[in-house]
Amino acid sequence: MRILVCIRQGLDGEINPFDACAYEEALRVKGAEVTLISMGPISVKDFLLRLTRLGAKKAILLCDKSFAGADTLATAYTLSLAVKKLNPDLIFCGRQTLVGDTAQTGPMLSVLTDTSLITNVMSIDEIGDTVTCTTRDNGIQTVTTPALLTIERINNLRLPSIMSKLGEVEVWSAEDIDADIEKCGLSGSPTKVVKTFENESGKRKCKYITAEELPQVITEALKKRNDELVKTVSNTQKLDKVFIIGEGPRTFAETISDNITVLSLTNANDLAEKITKLKPNAVLWGSDSLSKKLSAQVAAKLNLGLCADCTLLETDGEELYMYRPTLSGSVIAKIVSRTKPAMATVRTTQNGADIMVAAGYGAKDSLDTVRAFAEKYSAEMITTRKAVDNDILPYSMQVGLTGKTVSPLVYIAVGVSGAVHHIAGMQKSGTIIAINSDKDAPIFDYADYGIVADIGNIVI
């Protein structure tokens, strides 16, 4: 069994956390020959060499000046050429990176290499001529090999043993993989960043209240509709024809067009055929896992740009300008597509409870109290990355950039510091209430109401 693991070096110099999980899963497959592959400057060679100590036989670094500046489709194209040369039985990718956090490259790569696909893998249950996995949102899935799996944060990457040895690292250029450099890097990328600026979205004016006022605040908040999900701009000109895949993106679509057609979430081939035939100006998809998977596959089939996780759309009647957070949510990028139709996934409301209670790391000693609080209001309990990383609560409950996105009518943060990667997953909630003993906690900047107190001292 030959397994190829796609990895990326993060801005901190370490392996992307999702890719680390993919690597660990590959190493756990008995008898597998594991190869690493990455794309980047020559400095990444040392990074890959260190990782071979964990068990990979070798690593491939795709390094060429023509590869620089690639978006997801150009990256998938370059990787696909190397995959065809290596001919693995399985390809493991992390669900997403923390730099672009699009979750697009894996599904695009599966199309370009004609391999089966399972996304959002929580466990690999069986490997043979077929692969069976339990996924985060879509249950148990089985596909034939060769197959590509995108892995969630489901394990911890092992440390090297004292007796471990370094593998080898091969550096491949564009010529080595017979790449068409017009399809690589910046020149081959169908999406273009117009400008970037600091992300100030999501901040609210916090009103501090007492614990005694909390029940009334929750009651009033439940009466409100979450009408702040979509920010709008005054688009005096509209696009002639916009497709939405499912009803989720409708609110976004109405900001840019008066002519909206709904297509059902069917399969990538069917959707690609309809888009080609009917020629809309733009196609909008939701942010659920199936929409993300299908949108990336359609983009690869039609060689179209795809902008991920948009929070704002703007048009002059000709072009669609798409705004999305990047770099863990700290930066907003304004993006335009060089290909038509323009395609984007937009932040749509996820199904869930009307009230969600987030137990952060600061609530680790009061979990029973938080659970009782959540039960009192029939609320769904969720958590933060730090609480998960410290084995306080399970990953299935994690909200944020490396977890899930939620937008309940009422979000109550208990002992949550307000790290930017958590804010990215909950900032579209209706009313946000923060309970924290630290009056300077960043979470209060994103809350409508705040209580400066320890949850353990609040009478439920």
Which terms summarize this structure?
3 domains, 24 strands, 460 residues, Rossmann fold, globular, alpha/beta, 6-stranded parallel sheet, 9-stranded mixed sheet
Task: Explain what this protein looks like in three dimensions.
- This protein has 460 residues and is of the alpha/beta class.
- 22% of the residues lie in helices and 28% in strands.
- The protein folds into three domains: 2-183, Rossmann fold (3-Layer(aba) Sandwich), CATH 3.40.50.620; 207-226 and 351-457, Rossmann fold, CATH 3.40.50; 230-346, Rossmann fold (3-Layer(aba) Sandwich).
- It has helices at residues 17-27, 44-52, 72-86, 105-112, 214-221, 250-253, 268-278, 289-302, 367-376, 385-389, 420-426; strands spanning 2-6, 33-39, 58-62, 90-94, 116-127, 130-135, 140-144, 147-151, 168-172, 191-198, 207-208, 242-245, 260-263, 282-285, 307-310, 312-315, 320-326, 331-337, 342-346, 355-359, 380-383, 410-414, 431-436, 449-452.
- The protein has a nine-stranded mixed β-sheet with strand order 7-6-5-8-4-1-2-3-9, sandwiched between helices. The protein has a six-stranded parallel β-sheet with strand order 11-24-23-22-20-21.
- A hairpin with a 4-residue loop joins strand 16 and strand 17.
- The protein is globular.
- It starts with a strand and ends in an 8-residue tail after the last strand.
- Residues 226-231 have low confidence and may be disordered.
